[in-house]
TrEMBL record:
Taxonomic lineage of the native organism: Bacteria, Pseudomonadati, Bacteroidota, Cytophagia, Cytophagales
Organism, as annotated: Larkinella rosea
Keywords noted in UniProt: Coiled coil, Kinase, Phosphoprotein, Transferase
Name of the protein in its database record: histidine kinase
Superkingdom per UniProt: Bacteria
Annotated InterPro entries: CheY-like_superfamily, HATPase_C_sf, HATPase_dom, His_kinase_dom, HisK_dim/P_dom, HisK_dim/P_sf, PAS-like_dom_sf, Sensor_kinase/Photoreceptor
Coiled coil: 117-147, 265-292
Class of this enzyme: transferase
Residue positions where 4-aspartylphosphate is found in the record: 50
Catalytic activity as recorded in UniProt: ATP + protein L-histidine = ADP + protein N-phospho-L-histidine
Length: 524
């Protein structure tokens, strides 16, 4: 802003118009006293000051303005039509003016001079702002340096108190500080301890970590000065960042020698124990194989005398006891006991054979169930049973073993039916998402849920844990025949198929046996 000071308005007006035409902001004062008041309130780049004024003349006003610290960057230009002598011009310069123009003055020259003075004022203000900014930045940096120095001192105090070897590394990768523990392994505070010859390559890539500011961790063996022994240490170096860049590094060597020796000893023991277990497993496999052969031979040898007992009993009954009802009754009991024992031997043999590995293959469960129904055709016809089978899927199974599952479930459904009420059996299937009895239906799921329902005598669900255990029965042998092995065989077969078998039932309300089977299997 430009201030024009003149006691005559007719002098102010044309000068003001000229300056405003050149986009200057102009203020005016008609006396020296008014000018001083305005200088105290506002900042002016240039003051155009008339020399001849009543009261305070221009020289007095200039001397007064020079004493204002606020106006020390303001340029004063004297403009006079009367005082044109050399002595007045000299007085104008000594009073603090930067220029002295006499009237008449060329307007273009005057505007150019004011432009230069205005630009000079603006540059001075910019320099001031730059200086303030630099001073502030210097102060901030000074505070930051003091804070860093304090933190480094604090860090060194902490490192000195650590039980590990601790050190700091500068931006150039050289050691700056080491604590007392350092000198157990190195006599030079500027050099790293001696490492085992086999560990020299461990730290070859440190330069990459240093350059990229990445944490560096390695196991390394250091030579102890007192004993000359190499001991395992964990080296860990962490970057300290300033303004997004790693300024220095803090590192530690932690003694892990006892743990390392213990780990090596443990590994040796584990290796030895593993070898022992492998030997035991081989022995166990041989024992299992021998046991399977023994089971087969024993069952075969037991079944042969039983068959002879049954045949001889039948012959005695037909030839010699046709008229003796009491003897026939006793003989029937003997025959039935032999039959039960034969069934028990068969079931035990089936259960023992489940430990033998078998291969999975795609199996059409609908075809499998139809074949099983043929085996039960006689009892179905005798009991007037109604068996309904929905469309079942093709999934990976061991056919012989999954056949045992459905045979046992159908056999139980027919066996444990209500008296004088024809059995009604239904087998359904649906694709599900998860291996879970209550999983929701999902056309893209990886499992099938197959439900075998009947209207038989049912059972109390509080006995659920017992029904899949070998030799466990919920009914008396006099009312319902059986060995108590069928559902145990089914359970073991489902485990071999990586599946689930469960049940839902109420007494006299029938039962539901639920099978969850994967669609695809992997042969080991």
């Amino acid at each position: 802003m430009i201030l024009i000071v003149d006691d005559r308005p007719e002098n102010i007006l044309p000068l003001k118009k000229i300056l405003e035409l050149h986009n200057f902001t102009v203020d005016t004062a008609e006396s020296g006293e008014e000018a001083l008041k305005k200088v105290l309130k506002a900042n002016y780049a240039v003051i155009i000051l008339d020399v001849q004024m009543p009261g305070m003349d221009g020289f007095e006003v200039a001397n007064a303005i020079a004493g204002f610290s606020k106006a020390k960057d303001t340029s004063i230009m004297f403009l006079s039509a009367v005082n044109t002598e050399k002595k007045f011009i000299a007085k104008g310069y000594t009073s603090g003016g930067v220029d002295y123009l006499t009237k008449p003055v060329d307007p273009d020259i005057l505007v150019l001079k004011i432009k230069n003075l205005h630009r000079l004022y603006r540059q001075q203000q910019e320099l001031k702002e730059t200086q303030k900014s630099l001073e502030k930045e210097i102060e901030v940096r000074k505070q930051a340096q003091e804070e860093i120095a304090g933190r480094m001192q604090e860090l060194r105090s902490v490192l000195a108190s650590l039980p590990q070897m601790a050190f700091t590394i500068g931006p150039d990768g050289g050691l700056e500080y080491v604590n007392e523990h350092w000198f157990l392994y190195s006599s030079d505070q500027t050099a790293f301890p001696q490492t085992h010859p086999d560990d020299k390559k461990v730290c070859e890539d440190w330069d990459i970590y240093l350059k990229n500011g990445i944490e560096f961790t390695r196991e390394i063996r250091l030579k102890e000065l007192a004993t000359g022994d190499y001991k395992y240490h964990l080296l860990r170096i962490l970057p300290i960042f300033q303004q997004g860049k790693p300024a220095r590094w803090v590192g530690t060597f932690t003694d892990i020698h006892p743990q390392k020796l213990a780990a090596e000893l443990l590994e040796q023991k584990v290796e030895l124990r593993t070898k022992e277990l492998l030997v035991k497993n081989l022995e166990l496999e041989r024992s299992n194989h021998e046991l399977q052969q023994f089971t087969w031979v024993v069952s075969h040898d037991l079944k042969e005398p039983l068959r002879k007992i049954q045949i001889l009993n039948d012959l005695i009954k037909e030839k010699y006891l046709s008229g003796n009802s009491e003897a026939i009754s006793y003989l029937d009991r003997s025959i039935n006991s032999s039959a039960r024992m034969s069934g028990l031997i068969n079931d035990l043999l089936s259960y023992a054979q489940l430990s033998t590995p078998a291969l999975f293959q795609p199996t059409n469960l609908s075809h499998l169930l139809n074949e099983i129904l043929v085996d039960f055709d006689e009892i179905i016809h005798a009991k007037k049973a109604v068996v309904t089978i929905d469309q079942l899927p093709v999934i990976d199974t061991v056919p012989g073993r999954i056949r045992q599952v459905f045979q046992n479930l159908l056999s139980n459904a027919l066996k444990f039916s209500k008296k004088d009420i024809p059995p009604v059996i239904r087998i359904t299937s649906e694709r599900i998402a998860e291996k879970n009895v209550d999983s929701e239906r999902n056309p893209d799921g990886g499992f099938y849920r197959i439900v075998v329902s009947d209207n038989g005598i049912g059972f109390d669900e509080k006995f659920m844990d017992r029904i899949f255990v070998i030799f466990q029965r919920l009914t008396d042998r006099a009312s319902y025949e059986g060995t108590g092995i069928g559902l145990a065989i089914a359970k073991k077969n489902m485990d071999k198929h990586n599946g689930i078998i469960s049940a839902r039932s109420q007494v006299n309300e029938g039962s539901q046996f639920i099978l969850i089977l994967p669609i695809h299997q992997i042969n080991e």
